[in-house]
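Lecture 7 notes. Example A: sequence first, then its C-alpha cells.
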Amino acid sequence: MAHAREVSLEARLRDCGLRPTRQRIALADLLFAKGDRHLTVEELHEEAVNAGVPVSLATVYNTLHQFTEAGLLRVLAMEGSRTYFDTNISDHHHFFIEGENEVLDIPLSSIEIGNLPEPPEGMEIAHVDVIIRLRSKKSR
C-alpha cells in the first residue's frame, strides 16, 4: 500500500513539473496522506523529524513553496508572519481560532460574496479569501 502511494505521489509531482526526490515524496506523503490540512513550515518539519525523515527546516520551506507554485498547495497568511499551507486548493474560506493558531475550512456554499469593487484597469480578481477570526467567549 505504501509503495503504491509513493508511486502515485511521484506521478503527481512529475505532472506538476517537479522532480520526485526522496525528500519531496516524503514531505508530500506527510502532507497529503491525512486529508485536507493546514500546516506551517515548522509543523511539517516537526512531523518529518518525528517520522524519521532527514530534512532541514530550509528544505521544508523551499519544498512547500515549490508545491505552492506547482498548484499543489494554497498559502494562507493568518497572523503577521505566520503562514499556513492548505492542502485543499479548491475555492473555500476559513475560520481562524485566535490564541490556538487553528485553521478550519468553511465550505464555499456557506458564504455569499457580493458588491466587490471594480479592480484597477488591466487587472482582474483572481480569488477572494474570507478569514473569519474566532475567539472563545469570555465567561461572565
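Example B, a different protein, same format:
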Amino acid sequence: MITRDEIIRLTNEALKKEFELTDAQLVPSAHLQNDVGLDSLDAVDMVVVLEQKFGMTLRQGYDIRSIVTLNDLYDFIEKLAREHEAN
C-alpha cells in the first residue's frame, strides 16, 4: 500500500520534472494556478504525467477541476490509490 509520504514524493518528483519547478514551489498549501503557475493546458499535462507515474486513471468519479492546491492533489491521489488497491 502506498503511503501519503510516497504520494507526496512521487507527485512532487513528477511535477518538478514536467514543469521545471523547485522544492520551494511545492508546498502543500501552494495554489496550482496562482503559486505554481499551472494553466488549464498544464493541468491536462499534469494529469497525464501523474497517471503514468501512479499507473492509474485520475479522471474517474471526481471533478479534477475542484483540485486547487497541492494538498488537494495529494488527497485526490491518495483517495484513488486506496480505491485502486481495494479492487
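Note on Example B: DSSP finds three helices and no strands in the chain. The mean pLDDT is 91.
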